[in-house]
Amino acid sequence: MSHVSTPSADDTDGTTGAGGGRGRRRGRTGKRRTGRWILLSLAVLVLAGAGTVYWLYSGIDGNIKGVDINRSIGDDRPEKLPTSGQNVLILGSDSRAGANAKLDDAKVSGARSDTALVMHIPEGRKQAVAVSIPRDTLVTRPECTKADGTQVASAKRVMFNSIYSQVGPACVVKTVEQMSGVRMDHYVEVDFAGFKGLVDAIGGVTVTVDQDIHDSSSGLNITKGTHRLNGTQALQFVRTRHGIGDGSDLGRIGLQQQFMIALLSEIQKQDLLGSPVKAYKIADKLTAALTTDSELASLTKLAEFGRSLNGVSPSTMETIMLPVAYDKIDPNRVVAAEPQAATLWKAIRTDTAIPESAKKSPATGGN
């Protein structure tokens, strides 16, 4: 099993599951809690770290797209508890439309949410935890309303990552809220094409792998050792799963976690205050890749939220994979493992410590 100082996503269209379509697949689990510093953290910390310099660039505001989650979901939401801290759903979307199609020779159509994280920031904002939801998890999708007003009926045993493409981001938020009982305060989506531009803007990201990776699907070909990846290579890397480990979705989660840590580390190394031009370039690329809930959909609001996270450090961030088990009907899919999942969500909902038992997943990935 190969380990990398970075994460990886993949370019599948949802037809391969936790088992990748070749019988029961096993991938890395929540054991790889080395910390997927989330895409939201990248946005927030870059903006906050540069301080008031970004107020000079009002044009960047127009880059950020907003989704009115509150109006789309309505009142059918969990209660917001007074001690529940802040909870943010972060999605990494992998559309093959427009610029993204060029990145992958348009081999796959449509858009999917290839990365999903619930970021929990406790009261006091001194520590944070992120829960990864495997894309191949079977869930009950609640009744939802599409952006055009069309009603979509509830459905059982729906693959989690299909909800985004079939119904839209508001339904993903609603699904997460109903499966967890945790009220989402904010929503942040990062588009992979913009992700490529961000990596190029910061001058690349350094990763270390302990085996050669050759993935014809993603196009990534690197040898064992340390590499400085440019934007195109980074995109290939986060889409890679067939060239490393057992090729499963669970294994890819571990790689994605590692890559986000490396990306955040690179951003933190940037002298943003000493280089307004570089700061602007990074902010421009980053905000162009963002879609947020309407309450965060401006540079001002993002910066304000970012400043409130100044006490959160990557060194204290913990990343956990939602405990899952292989589905008994389809071993290529996974389902939330109980009682671990319920215990995990209760701890987040009540802003209390997460028991170690709630971090263990029956789908061990062979580790």
Task: Compose a concise summary of this entry.
This protein is an alpha+beta fold.
List keywords for this structure.
367 residues, alpha+beta, seven-stranded mixed beta sheet, two-stranded antiparallel ribbon, 11 helices, disordered N terminus
Produce the secondary structure layout.
Blueprint: H1 39-50, E1 65-67, H2 69-73, E2 86-93, H3 99-103, E3 113-121, E4 129-132, E5 138-141, E6 144-145, E7 151-152, E8 155-159, H4 162-166, H5 169-180, E9 186-191, H6 192-201, E10 205-209, E11 213-215, E12 220-222, E13 225-229, H7 231-239, H8 249-269, H9 276-288, E14 290-293, H10 299-307, E15 318-321, E16 324-326, E17 334-336, H11 340-349
Parallel strand pairs: 1-14, 2-9, 4-15
Antiparallel strand pairs: 2-3, 3-4, 5-8, 6-7, 9-14, 10-13, 11-12, 16-17
Helix pairs in contact: 1-8, 1-9, 1-10, 6-7, 6-9
Question: How does this structure look, described?
Answer:
- The structure is a single chain.
- The longest helix has 21 residues.
- The protein is built from 11 helices and 17 strands.
- Helices cover 30% and strands 20% of the residues.
- The protein has 367 residues and is of the alpha+beta class.
- Helix 1 runs parallel beside helix 8, helix 1 crosses helix 10 and helix 6 packs across helix 7.
- The strands form 6 sheets. Strands 1-14-9-2-3-4-15 form a 7-stranded mixed β-sheet, with helices on both faces. A two-stranded antiparallel ribbon has the order 5-8.
